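Field reference: sequence -> structure
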Amino acid sequence: MGRPRLNPVLEPCQEGRTRVLIVDDSAMVRQALALGLGSDPRLEVVGTASNAAAARERMDELKPDVVTLDLEMPQMDGLTFLRSYMATAPVPTVVISSLTRASGEIVMRALEAGAVDIVSKPSLGAGQGLPAIMRDICARVWTAGRARPAVPSDTVPQPIQPGVRDGWIHALGASTGGVQALSRILPFFPAGSPGIVVVQHMPLGFTAPFARRLDAICRMRVREAIDGDLVLPGLALIAPGGLRHMEIERCAEGLRVRLVAGEPVCYSRPSVDMLFTSIARVVGAQASAALLTGMGRDGAAGLLAIRRAGGRTFAQDEASSVVYGMPLAARDLKAADEILTLDDIPARMMLASAADAWGQTQATGQNWRMTEREETATWPKI
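Structure field:
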């Protein structure tokens, strides 16, 4: 395919292709993204803009399916612009940003404001690695075109306070839309919750600022995991993005995380499947796990392994998912005990770990192995 058209008013987008508007103040970056995105037969670059004012005009005129957005722009910055159109006419947005400590914090705010995904800005000097980088960007932009932008809720989460069973672990896995989902549900968990381990698909370098943002809004402590970290009550550990997988192993002190080398699994590193499978193997029935919004199948097989090991398993429903890929795969595998709306997941996970609920279950012989949401009508309404 030749150079992509940048004047869609003169020549309309081909039917079925995802229409993309590129917003970046650098002419070289706009050109590189236009060439890269335009080379994907699933995508059509319908226009570019160098600032927020021009982008607003083109959005009103062109009605793109996806916007790629740089956050560092003159006049109105990208975050302020994102918030303005998400409040009135949401468009799935992929943030493309260079990573610095300051920009990492801004990116987290953009994702919380409704951006669907984050991609590291390609280096124009990446050489032979540039095609692989552009393939990843193309895949994320195409996926964003099938997403439902999440509008932040004004509801303040109330903590859940059931008793906690000793030795329990919670696990969460997410991809596209997961930053908003995790920012929504992690504040529900009380300060004394069992330890939580999380895999959220993110580029290298962005999980540390994400963990800091979560730590500021959660009752639990939250930080990026380090190899050898103990899984402790009141602590949530986020797998570092990009280079290694995160697994769980037993040690003299209890449970700890290991960051291990390995090829991507389900096109992902870290992989939710790798984490969940290790939990099934090491922890077995003393675990609850939930698979949240995201593209692809990562985590579905691991969730099934936890279920078969006796743990409690949940998947997010379609209505509350930004991208219904990973939870759908879990549903199709019958890997989830329950399919739940996002806000119901923390209470179900805490109920699974509650010592008093477990004791009642043992006494009454109630079966925890429920296979469909319709079979859970006897559970208390949350």
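Note: Residues 277 and 302 are 5 Å apart (CA to CA).
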